[in-house]
Write a structure and sequence with these properties.
heterodimer, A: alpha+beta, hypothetical protein PF0899 fold, about 20% helix, elongated, B: alpha/beta, Rossmann fold, 8 helices, about 35% helix
């Protein structure tokens, strides 16, 4: 791919919306995060003197607004001719959780059911579910 | 061989956001990131806020859109310095885009900087810009179920303005249901029901903003 002036600029070669042969639509949101993810993986692989990245293990919160298919789709495009070409992405999903502001009970965020199971109050602080980090990479 | 990474995928963005924030603090510029769905009233609320505060504070605006300079032109017509960022398809602003735009903003002559994000309820939440406050504008025609559908955005903002309350008599908008969703996700959010068209509720928001600025500044 063309060298980008910064890690977050959108590669000029790719259109804003891509549709692959299976009809999957990928939007530029995932392109930006995929580019960032690829850079991070390459940085760590190069530091370790690796020849090839075989696996990238990601952790994604339920409300992090990241679509796995879309990331994979962009990854296949932008990882070409890099150490990460052909690497398998795995996504570990973390459920969204609340901490009740009244009694401190922690409970999962579920559509239309945000009531604390302990004290019946509604909602609280979102304590997990926004994560998007790289746990590890596997290299040869 | 397995290499432990355990690093935020967006750490490059976070880093630049932190640098932007340091610059804002050093220059004494209070920065707001306005986020909303397209058409909710981001530019309208910015215009109203400018009208109310332009004689008290020096304001600059950065406008993000996929294309066009329509928003920056609206702001420039008020005689306020405005820089347009065209994201060329990207659905959100990121810290680096803002950093680039800052070269065209006179920070030494700015007290308040409004950054208008791309119209979108999903993507902008993941990208810090270096702002002091995240401001969300919801609008009544979008419906009362939006907090339940977009918890990511509603749970992360410091301020929620509910625009177009003048339309409430025409809509089936259950304020209780909306507010219950907001309070569940974000009990500490500063909530302002208002109308950019009639001006109702705008004063409360503006006074809150001035107070928030002096608290943080």
């Amino acid at each position: 791919m063309t060298s980008a002036p910064c890690r977050f600029s959108t590669p000029a070669r790719l259109p804003a919306v891509l549709i692959d042969s299976a009809g999957r639509i990928a939007t530029v949101h995932e392109l930006a995060v995929t580019q960032s993810m690829l850079n991070l993986a390459l940085e760590h692989a190069e530091r370790a003197g690796a020849q090839r990245i075989t696996h990238i293990n990601l952790v994604v919160g339920e409300i992090a607004s990241i679509v796995d298919d879309s990331v994979q789709f962009y990854f296949d495009f932008i990882s070409k001719d890099t150490l990460a070409e052909g690497a398998q992405l795995s996504f570990k999903r973390l459920p969204a959780r609340f901490r009740c502001s009244a009694c401190g009970q922690e409970f999962p965020l579920r559509d239309g059911n945000w009531i604390c199971p302990a004290c019946q109050r509604l909602g609280g602080e979102v304590i997990s579910g926004r994560e998007f980090y790289m746990e590890s990479i596997e290299v040869e | 061989m397995k290499i432990q990474v355990v690093e935020n995928v967006l750490s490059a963005n976070e880093q630049i956001a932190l640098e932007n924030r340091r610059l804002f603090d050093e220059k004494g510029v209070f920065v707001l990131n306005f986020m909303a769905a397209p058409g909710a009233g981001k530019t309208s609320l910015i215009e109203r806020t400018i009208e109310a505060l332009r004689h008290r504070l020096r304001i600059s605006v950065i406008d993000g859109d996929v294309a066009s300079t329509i928003d920056a032109d609206r702001i420039a017509r008020l005689g306020i310095p405005a820089v347009q960022i065209n994201t060329g398809g990207a659905c959100h602003l990121d810290a680096n885009m803002v950093r680039s735009a800052l070269s065209k903003v006179s920070l030494d002559e700015t007290d308040l900087l409004f950054v208008e994000n791309v119209g979108n309820l999903i993507c902008p939440t993941g990208f810090a810009l270096g702002e002091h406050l995240k401001v969300m504008i919801a609008s009544t025609p979008e419906g009362d179920d939006k907090p339940y559908k977009y918890p990511g955005m509603f749970s992360v903002v410091d301020v929620l303005a509910l625009n177009k309350v003048d339309l409430l008599p025409l809509l089936e908008f259950r304020m209780d249901y909306f507010r219950r969703g907001v309070e569940a996700l974000n009990p500490d959010v500063a909530f302002f029901p208002l109308s950019c068209k009639t001006g109702k509720g705008v004063d409360e928001w503006v006074e809150w903003l001035v107070a928030a600025r002096s608290k943080l500044g």
